[in-house]
Structure formats: C-alpha cells, structure tokens
From TrEMBL, chain A:
Keywords, sorted A to Z: Membrane, Transmembrane, Transmembrane helix
One Pfam family in the UniProt entry: FixQ
Source organism of the structure: Rhizobium subbaraonis
Segments crossing the lipid bilayer: 15-33
InterPro entries: Cbb3-typ_cyt_oxidase_comp (IPR008621)
Protein's name according to its UniProt entry: Cytochrome c oxidase cbb3-type subunit 4
TrEMBL record, chain B:
Protein name: cytochrome-c oxidase
Pfam family, one: COX1
Record organism: Rhizobium subbaraonis
UniProt keyword list: Cell membrane, Copper, Electron transport, Heme, Iron, Membrane, Metal-binding, Respiratory chain, Translocase, Transmembrane, Transmembrane helix, Transport
Reactions this protein catalyses: 4 Fe(II)-[cytochrome c] + O2 + 8 H(+)(in) = 4 Fe(III)-[cytochrome c] + 2 H2O + 4 H(+)(out)
Length: 57, 566
C-alpha cells in the first residue's frame, strides 16, 4: 500500500470516527465510575469551603 | 504611565522585596539579556521597522530593571511567606488586564466610528482602519483577556491545589514577558508590521518570544500540580491547562515562517494557498475555542460556584463537556472556508463538528445556570454574580449561533457579512468580557483584603451599561449583516445583481452608527469598572497590616454589601 494522499485521507476518515467514539465511551465510564463519585463530590465542594485560603503546610 | 506610577507607589518595592536575593539576581540577569537582545535587534535591524521594536524591547527591559533596582538590596523575605499563596503577579495582572481592556475597547469604538465616518483617520497612516483594527482585536483578546487569564489562573491554580506557586520569579517572567509581546504586537500594527494572519499578526521575533513565555507558563502549571495537596485536579485547572497547551501548539504551527533575514521584520509563511488558509483557520477557530472559551470556562467553573456559594451542579457533566469541547473544537475550523478551494469533505467535516459542538457547549452553559438554580435571590442582589449568569447565557446564545452559522447553507448568507462580526461580539462582549468582569470583581476584594468593592452601585451601573451595549451592538450587526447578505444575493429579472456594493454601504450606515453607540456604552462600563476597582485598591485596608495577615480571607457576603450600596 503506497503512502499517498488517498491513503492518508482514507485513514483520517475512518480512524477518526473510531477513536472519537472510543474516547467518548472512555470519558463517560470515567465520569460515571462509582468509585470516582467521592473525589468528584469532594472537589466540587472543596472550592466553596474556606479551608483553601491558605496552602497546606 | 498610570500603571508605572501604581507599581512604584503601591507595590514596586514591596513586591521586589518578596523575591529572594537569588531570584532578584536571576531577574537582573534575564533583564540584562532582554536589554542586550533589544539593542542587538535595533543594530541588526537598522533601516528596518525592526529597529524600532529593538528599542522598545530594550526600553521595556530598562523600565522593569529600574523597578527591580529600587528594591534590590531589600532583606530576604520571611519564611512566613510559605504559609500564604503568592498573589503579587495576580494583582498586577488584574491591573494590566483592565488597562488593556480600556485601551482595546477605546480603539474598538474608534474603528467602529471609522466605518461610519471614514474621515476619523485624520489623514494619518497609523490611524487607518487596517492598522487600528488589529490593535483593537489583540488589545481586547490578548491584552484584556490574556492578562485576566494569567492573573486568574495563578489564583485558581494555587487555591484548588492547596499549593503555593513553585517559585516567585517565573510567574513574573510570564506576566511581564507576555505584556512585552502585547506591546510589540500593538506598536507593530501601528507601524504597519503584520503577517496578515488574523489574530496571529505579530511578526516572527515576537512569535518566538511568546513561545518562550508560554512554555514557562505551562511549566509553572505542571510544577504546581506536581506539588498539589489535593489528590484530584479540580476541573477549572483542566480548562486552564487545555488553554495553555493547545494555544502553544496552535501558535507554533500557524506561525511557522522564514524571515527575509535576521535583521528584517518581514517573514514568509511555510504554508501557501489553501493549506495556508486551512492552517490559519485551524488556528483562528481554535484560538476562539481554547483562548476565548476553554480559558474562560476555567474562570467560570471556579468563580461562579465560589461566588454563588454552591458547588457546581454536576461535576460529571463538567468532565464530559471538557473532553467534548477539547476534542470536537479541533475539527471545526474548516467551517470558515465554506465555498472555497478547500476540499468539500473537509468543509463538511468542519460543519458536522461545529454542530456536534453544541452538545458540550450547552452542557457547560446549562451546568452554570443550574448551579445558580436555587440561588436566584443572590443573582438578583449581587451584580457580580449577575455578570457571571449573563456570561453563561451569552455563552449559550453564541455557541448556538456559531453552530447554526457553520451550516453551509446558512453560511452562504452570513459569510463575509456583519453577521459574523455580530456573532463574534455576542461571544466576546456577552461571554468573555462578562465572565472576566464578574471574576475580577469577585477577585479584587479577596486579593487586596478588602471587605467589599468600593461601590456596589457602580457595579450595577456597569452591569446595565455592558448589557445595553452588547444588545445594541449585536442587534445592529444582525440587521446589518442580514441586510447586506440579502442585498448581495438579490438578482433582477435580467439575472444581474440588483444592488451595487455602494448600495449596501448606504443601507448599512445607520447600523454602523448604532454599533458605535453600543460599543461606546460597553467602553463606558469598562471605564466605570476601572474606576471602581482602582478606588477599592487605593482605599486604605480596614484593619492594620499585621492583623490582616492572620485573618482568613473571607469572600464578602454578597447580600450585606449589595444593600449597603442600594
């Protein structure tokens, strides 16, 4: 198979679809993974607490 | 001028004294190098416009050196400083952002007026539309927006990681180096220096300098994250990181060019023809995506929940929309090149990704508004929070409009007309400037340890000026753009164009006047903001310095001071 314009565009047109779908599934799994819930909740609440007004020692 | 006086009087010596002796030495070495490079540019570029830029670089280095020397022999700062965050660069960044904002918006009103009254160039070459317009765009995007992003990113980064910045020199290098780039950009345009790429006009030496500055900026982020005390990296930092990383990639690729000679400002792009157009609009659209969207979403995801006192509605949705925005936007740039020599399938790709982008964009806008759901009384009472709410609404409007305009058939009407200009300003005034002003208003009392802003009433005044200005501007440009687009495509019975180009100009004239008025209202709001923040800073702190250092910095209770100003 020669490495010409058609090969590159053919690869771009097919591979792009699959890696974007795979990435979307990966992101959704990460966002909804039950074990991650705790750290997400902690992160969301930590910015509105007053604890963060000073760096950790 | 004002800025220099302010640094000298209020912060200069004190801020230099915060640097360690070693950091002051390094700063002096860097400044000597900058001055030498400036002089070398002036010598190598004699007889070329580059010489003027050489002198500007040298002068900039000397001014900063003078500020440094005033405090060079101060004693080393106390170890106590490690118990506080390092906020001096953020403070200066806020001031610089506001100065650039007022300058950039003033020039914006000027170029708007030029379109209605072309005589306002006063027969001066530097005041022609083609030279002033990039001063406006770079002034507001890079000067106002960029400085606000740098200032807020240092603030957010430290608070969300619970870690101090890794050192005290590199943030100054980034902030001042970036402003040197902005000065080179603006002065270059006035002299007629441009590489004719929209939002990437500065010539090769300014571009190289920005690469150095930007790499240091990214390293500050990585080094601070490496020292973080919070295991999870808060989502605002993801957006700031995407902004820094992707802008570096875009900037380097789009500005690949070969200068005529080392002593010559002019350079030639590595790309030509349709490849050049595609590279430019890959850059241009992602500048919108990662400079004007991702960075400011970082602001939104921190300052809006903080100000509202409520956690973000859905943290999961913020993650999903982050990855959606970063990976979809990359492919949308080709919608700027509908009906051109660009292959049809690449145009279609850009159109499709622009439509898909609506999902993560509205997820972000909805997430912001749902965060406020249940706190509408705060939005009513607190104009600062209302700025942020309005930003989220305009973000939703502008992203819907953008997806709509990317559809090929719609683009055939909208492209090259004032509708595009209206769309850009719905985003720039309604989204970017509103979230910036909201965030800066929230940030200023925290940074300078004041209980509240100087005047809540002036924030109200600014809010309504900004909203009125944006609405007048955007409606004027919608009318103008659609009128223009329709006149361009109207044929008479004989199959020839019904209107000449001059006919369209006459039709647009009233809208151009209305646009100038809208811009003037927005500029007036920015001047009010500058005055209000200036007075907040210059008003003496309510408690003495020693006691203030031990007090936790409480965000002001919005309700209490909103009443005080009413």
């Amino acid at each position: 198979m020669s490495f010409d314009h058609d090969t590159v565009t053919g690869f771009a047109k097919s591979f792009g679809l699959f890696y974007l779908i795979a990435m979307s599934i990966g992101v959704i799994i990460y966002a909804y993974w039950p074990a991650n819930r705790k750290q997400f909740d902690h992160a969301a609440h930590s910015i509105i607490s007053d604890d963060e007004d000073r760096p950790c020692p | 001028m004002i800025q220099g006086t302010w640094i000298v009087q209020c912060g200069g010596v004190g801020m230099v004294a915060q640097l360690t002796a070693l950091e002051r030495t390094y700063a002096a070495i860097i400044l000597v190098c900058v001055i030498c490079v400036g002089v070398a540019m002036a010598v190598a570029g004699r007889g070329d416009l580059m010489a003027a830029h050489g002198w500007i670089v040298a002068l900039f280095g000397m001014v900063v050196m003078a500020l440094l020397l005033r405090g060079i022999d101060a004693p080393d700062p106390w170890e106590e400083r490690f118990r506080e965050y390092y906020d001096d660069p953020t403070k200066v960044g806020i001031i610089l952002s506001l100065i650039w904002g007022v300058i950039g918006m003033f020039v914006g009103v000027w170029v708007a007026a030029l379109l209605a009254w072309p005589d306002l160039t006063f027969d001066a070459a530097w005041a022609s539309f083609g030279r002033l317009r990039p001063v406006h765009t770079s002034g507001v995007i890079f000067g106002f927006g960029g400085n606000a992003l740098i200032a807020t990113s240092f603030h957010v980064l430290q608070r969300t990681t619970r870690a101090r910045l890794p050192d005290q020199l590199s943030p100054w290098f980034v902030l001042l180096g970036y402003n040197l780039f902005c000065v080179l950009a603006a002065t270059g345009y006035l002299m007629g220096l441009t590489q004719s790429k929209e939002y990437a006009e500065p010539e090769w030496y300014a571009d190289l300098w920005l690469v150095i500055v930007w790499v240091v900026y990214f390293l500050i982020y990585l080094r601070t994250l490496a020292r973080r005390r919070e295991p999870h990296i808060y989502v605002a930092n993801w957006y700031y990181m995407a902004f820094i990383l992707v802008v570096a990639i875009l900037h380097i690729v789009n500005n690949l060019a070969v200068p005529v000679s080392i002593g010559h400002a002019k350079s030639y792009s590595l790309f030509s023809g349709v490849q050049d157009a595609m590279t430019q609009w890959w850059y241009g659209h992602n500048a919108v995506a990662f400079f004007l969207t991702a960075g400011f979403l970082g602001m939104l995801y921190y300052y809006l929940p903080k100000r509202a006192g409520r956690p973000i509605y859905s943290y999961r949705m913020s993650i999903i929309s982050f990855w959606g925005i970063t990976f979809m936007y990359m492919w949308a740039g080709s919608h700027h090149l509908h009906y051109t020599a660009l292959p049809h399938w690449v145009q279609t790709l850009g159109m499709v990704f622009s439509l898909v982008l609506l999902v993560p964009s509205w997820a972000s806008a909805g997430n912001a508004l749902l965060t406020l759901n249940g706190a509408w009384h705060k939005v009513r009472d607190d104009a600062v929070l209302r700025f942020m709410m309005l930003a989220a609404i305009f973000y939703g409007i502008a992203t819907f409009e953008g997806s709509f305009m990317a559809i090929r058939a719609v683009n055939s009407l909208s492209h090259y007309t004032d509708w595009t200009v209206g769309h850009v300003h719905a985003g720039a005034l309604g989204w970017v400037a509103m979230i910036t002003f909201g965030s800066l208003y929230a940030l200023v009392p925290w940074m300078w340890k004041r209980p509240a802003l100087y005047s809540a009433r002036l924030v109200e005044v600014h809010f309504w000026l900004a909203l009125a200005g944006t609405v007048v501007y955007v409606f004027a440009m919608w009318n103008s753009g659609i009128t223009q687009g329709l006149m361009w495509r109207t044929y008479d019975q004989n199959g020839t164009l019904a209107y000449s180009f001059i006919d369209t100009l006459v039709a647009m004239h009233p809208y151009y006047i209305a646009r100038t008025v809208g811009g003037l209202l927005f500029l007036a709001g920015a001047v009010v903001a500058f005055y209000n923040i200036w007075m907040t800073i210059s008003r003496p702190a309510p408690v003495d310095e020693g006691a203030a250092a031990d007090l936790p910095v409480e965000p002001p209770a919005p309700r209490a001071w909103a009443q005080a100003g009413e």
